Amino acid sequence: MQHNRFAPDRGLTTRMVVTMFLIGLLYVVFVGALLALLRGSWPLILIIAGALFVAQFWFSDKIAAFSMGAREVTPEQAPELHGVVDRICALGDLPKPRVAIADSDVPNAFATGRNKKNTMVCATTGLLRRLEPDELEGVIAHELSHVAHKDVAVMTIASFLGVLAGVITRIGLWGGFRRDNRDPNAAIIALVVPLVSALIYVISFLLTRMLSRYRELSADRAAAYLTGRPSSLASALTKVSGQIAAIPTEDLRRSQPFNAFFFAPALSAGAAASKLLSTHPTLERRLEQLGRITRELDRR
Questions:
Q1: Domain for residue 266, yes or no?
Q2: Is there a domain that residue 164 lies in?
Q3: d(Cα 140, Cα 128) in Å, to the nearest integer?
Q4: Mean pLDDT in each 10-residue stretch from start to end of the chain (300 residues)?
Q5: Is 284 a known active-site residue?
Q6: Which residues sit in the known binding site?
Q7: How far apart are CA 270 and CA 69, in angstroms?
Q8: Active-site entry in 143, 250, 284, 288
Q9: Binding site residues for Zn(2+), as ranges?
Q10: Residue 153 in domain
Q11: Radius of gyration, alpha carbons of the chain
């Protein structure tokens, strides 16, 4: 049931369900394969898998916010940003999230949180300095639509398997293979486990990337319909993408691990990211969609 005024997206819901099903299936296959190959290490594997899942689900938002240097601000400290968040929450019938600012010249914004009750929306100082109020509203509406659609939590869980594949394989290699070097199967296992891990990682990586690109288009649509000003969001997209291209590469490199959270990817002008590997659809595709919505609203 839709409990907010953000435009629902059945396509996004379907993709989230399918992605979670496939990720869950991969998770079961991966852990099952490790249990079969590393019979003596199964208690450790289950403990590590469970601990990593809990850590990823409960603390990934805090880790992302901490890594970006996000600090929570009060309405007195950031009245303009709080005013924008208040207006979008009133329009969208959402509870107000915590509001934060990250001291970074990279113009961007992101939202984190497992659910509406522990959500935080953050804008960088570079974004606040560059955008007009209506453009900032479009960006904040985009970020809060991720919360309304619940895709922030789904992306957090979906990205877990890639982390698990790497960590458990290392633990298996350290603890599972080196106890008995006389075992004739040890060499085979030492080869098979990294291959299985790599395959699982690649599949989960591609699944999350496909979902990430679609959820960004969905957030653009929901924000455009909610605010009724798709041109403002298009202007913000164009401005942010252009300004990011001028940011020093070193600063962008520090931000790139969090691209999946961002309003726009932190890529330099010369970065030619493959569409298959990108966390976001191309700028042209996003602007084309917003142009169609503008024409639709004009006809109304």
A1: yes
A2: yes
A3: 11
A4: 79 92 81 71 71 71 76 95 96 93 92 79 95 96 93 76 62 53 61 73 85 95 96 96 81 74 76 72 95 93
A5: no
A6: 142, 146, 216
A7: 26
A8: 143
A9: 142, 146, 216
A10: yes
A11: 21
